[in-house]
Amino acid sequence: MRSINVGLLGLGTVGQALTQLITQSQPTIRVVKALVRHPIRARGVAVRVTTDPDEIVRDPEIDVVVDVMGGQHPAMEILSAAFQHGKDVVTANKEVMTYYGPALQALARQHNRLLLYEASVAGGMPIIDAITHHLSVVPIDRIEGVLNGTCNFILSHMEEGHDYLEALHEAQRLGYAEQNPEADVEGYDTARKLVLLARIGFHTEIPAEFSAITGITGVTGHDVARLASLGCGVRLVGRALCQDQGISLSVAPTVYRQGHPFLRLQGPQNAVQVTSAVGHFLFEGPGAGGLATATSVLSDILRIRQLVPDREPNPMISLTFNEPETPAICFPLDPETPLPQVLPDELRRTSSYAILSCQLPRELAKLWGLRQYAWGEEEGPTIR
Amino acid sequence: MRSINVGLLGLGTVGQALTQLITQSQPTIRVVKALVRHPIRARGVAVRVTTDPDEIVRDPEIDVVVDVMGGQHPAMEILSAAFQHGKDVVTANKEVMTYYGPALQALARQHNRLLLYEASVAGGMPIIDAITHHLSVVPIDRIEGVLNGTCNFILSHMEEGHDYLEALHEAQRLGYAEQNPEADVEGYDTARKLVLLARIGFHTEIPAEFSAITGITGVTGHDVARLASLGCGVRLVGRALCQDQGISLSVAPTVYRQGHPFLRLQGPQNAVQVTSAVGHFLFEGPGAGGLATATSVLSDILRIRQLVPDREPNPMISLTFNEPETPAICFPLDPETPLPQVLPDELRRTSSYAILSCQLPRELAKLWGLRQYAWGEEEGPTIR
User: Fold this and answer.
1) Residue B263 sits in the same domain as residue B133
2) Does residue B247 sit at the A interface (CB-CB below 8 Å)?
3) Is residue A209 part of a domain?
4) Which end of chain B has fewer CB atoms surrounding its CB within 10 Å, N or C?
């Protein structure tokens, strides 16, 4: 298997997580060098550092340049230089992709190189790849996404009775919101990710900026409480529609009835819904975090190496067919009959069903005249 | 762009949907020939047909052999011959992949060919690719899936008060269940798909069969009703766990509290949850149907052509930035103040909020002292 040498742009949270992940799991990939701003600052990983981008893009040893530094500049200039020096590029940088993605893709094509950017939208969730290579094989009608963890945190916190500013300050105190939270709370971060998704979903040029953006700064605790009393909740949603009259993009605080999957999202968990001629798709996963984002970057690096990594299977792991260890809920075979006396007292909680801490072997359940269902969640249902 | 010639094995629902999809959307792909059992039977698509597999696998014009016929034999023999004659293979056939997948992958490697099988699990949902290339970059702890549409249909129908046999007969009447429903209702279909997911998720050899399989034939209407009264519901779930003592696979009717995403699944909609060091992922999408499955097959064919299809963007579609057309719910800026009189009477439904059939232009909302939220679902909330 061909080995790959990586040059990193940035050695922050994602860069460090990526380096550790590669060191631990990828013997044929090596992080050769990292571009940093402050070479002296101690870091958790042992990588050669440099402050000169040329030392990355001109290094003949480096095959793939990985951008985990963010921001439009100097990322755009460095990535352009990387293509000119024959490197493939993997980026987690949504700003550079939103504003310079089409130009960088053209440059990559011109130099017969690859530009992959899975990590730039929804961190650890493989949504770029799913839309690019799979869902957009048929026309897509709409893409809707909850794409900003900071807003999720604030809106969830408001559901507990806090007002906007209290929730924002709590998010800042815990490090979920930046001291200048504008990009997150005003919806610009969501808008940038939406532009990237709409470009690949609708196969069309879409400018980096659009105007129909409303953030969550106008959401009040009163409204959240009143919506809750109506059985509803609110999340900041980016929505791209492809209709007869064209494509429209918008970002707005959006109301859903309780039970809608978007309302389950807490903190960094992101979700995207895609509707096409084929039906309805939902993707949910961690949208931020060093390891989550590093996973997406690594999967792009592996894709560069080969179309189908098709790793050799490991030697057979001992394969045990245990009875599943999940709890069970049991009913007597005859609904009119009480549970058999043979069940231990502490488990027979009601006259008509029992909660067991694990599933019974099938033979025993049969012998005792019980039907049992695995319980799929952490805790069994409450006894009434 | 290199053109691709496809030889089809099978011209049933999926084969026909695929041929139409390719004809409509892929000028550089051509379906050259299809293997059928009954060449005379009229079909909805114009493709040359043959009853002789050799005419497919030995045809020098054909690049990719696509298996949409199902069953272990003769699929295994034909796909083996295809690799020997230098063809790449795309298959939607879970039986052949479960029982002969590892042998076919070895043969593909030996002949330096590709074997892709996205459509073999969960039809239109890109779950094989997501797990193979993305999620399994870090160790996966558990994979849980609702993978059988027939069981979804039956269990949903039982929630409406029917017993198992009534629901099964209704499913058979509507064509959702086969006359011999054993593979679906006894859990074997789910088990096969689970084996395929576990192999790629845990990077290990896993035999085609395991014993901890309980279907839904023992689920009674009484139980479903009692579970509903406990605020719970049941779905047939395949579960693969990777723990210290090894890997365990099981299929069982599994109980979840209302609100769990698995309980929302109706009919052919499938879902898979994956838990890894990175967090929690959920994928939901259509698990069956001609077009859904054809989409997955086509995305595999396109993957064979190039790592990144990176289609040239279309000429710019007229990009309109309409105010979103979703309905809105409005609150007065001051919660103590009633809604402004300026709102049309028929829209002012309560004293403290209003439902509008579409969002107001932002300037108007501001002028009228209203905060508005987009409404994300088909119908607005009920007025109380």
Assistant:
1) yes
2) yes
3) yes
4) C
Residue B215 and residue B185 in contact, taking contact as beta carbons nearer than 8 Å = yes
Q: Which band of pLDDT confidence, cut at 50, 70 and 90, is reported for residue A270? A: very high
Q: Which residues of A touch B335 (CB under 8 A)?
A: 220, 222, 226
Examine the fold and report which residue of A84, A100, A120 is the final residue of a domain before the chain moves on: A120
Mean pLDDT over B357-369 rounds to 76
Whole-number Å distance between alpha carbons of B270 and B281: 14
Clarify whether residues A66 and A152 are in a common domain. no
**Higher per-residue pLDDT: B309 or A101:** A101
Is A319's CB within 8 Å of B118's CB?
no
Asked if residues A254 and B376 have their Cβ atoms less than 8 Å apart, the reply is yes
| Count of A-B CB contacts under 8 Å | 338
A315 lies in a domain?
Answer: no
Same domain, yes or no: B252 and B370:
no
- Both B140 and B35 in one domain: the answer is no
**Residue B44 at interface with chain A, using a CB cutoff of 8 Å:** no
Has residue B252 been placed in a domain?
A: yes
Active site residue A33: no
Tell whether A181 and A70 lie within a shared domain: no
* Statement to judge: residues B104 and B203 lie in one domain: no
Residues of B in contact with A205 (CB under 8 A): 313-314, 316
Enter the ipTM.
0.84
Q: How far is A159 from chain B (nearest CA, A)?
A: 16
- Our CA angle for B70, B203, A113, nearest 5°, is 90
| Chain B residues touching residue A223 (CB < 8 angstroms) | 331, 371, 373
Cα–Cα distance measured from residue B168 to residue B164, given in angstroms and rounded to the nearest whole number: 6
**Does the distance separating the beta carbons of B134 and A260 come in below 8 Å?**
no
Q: How confident is the model at residue B64 (pLDDT cuts 50, 70, 90)?
A: very high
- Residues A39, A40, A42, CA angle at the centre, nearest 5°? 105
Whole-angstrom Cα distance, residue A5 to residue A86? Answer: 13
B306 lies in a domain? Answer: no
Chain A environment of B308 (Cβ under 8 Å): 114, 116, 132
**A384, pLDDT greater than 50:** no
pLDDT in tens, B258-315: 889 999 999 899 999 999 999 999 999 999 889 999 999 999 999 888 643 333 444 4
Choose, from A33, A87, A94, A193, the residue flagged as catalytic: A193
Q: What mean pLDDT do residues A120-134 have?
A: 94
Closest-CA distance of chain A to residue B52, Å: 31
Q: Are residues A13 and A139 in the same domain?
A: no
Structural domain for B69, as ranges: 4-120
Write down the pLDDT at residue A317: 47
> Does the predicted model carry a pTM greater than 0.90?
no
A296 touches chain B (CB under 8 A): yes
Question: CATH code at A77?
Answer: 3.40.50.720
Last residue of a domain, one of A286, A315, A350: A286
B344 touches A at CB < 8 Å: no
Residues of B in contact with A281 (CB under 8 A): 124-125, 283-286
How big is chain B, counted in residues?
Answer: 384
The C-alpha of B327 sits at a distance from chain A's nearest C-alpha, in angstroms, of 10
A275: three-class secondary structure by DSSP: strand
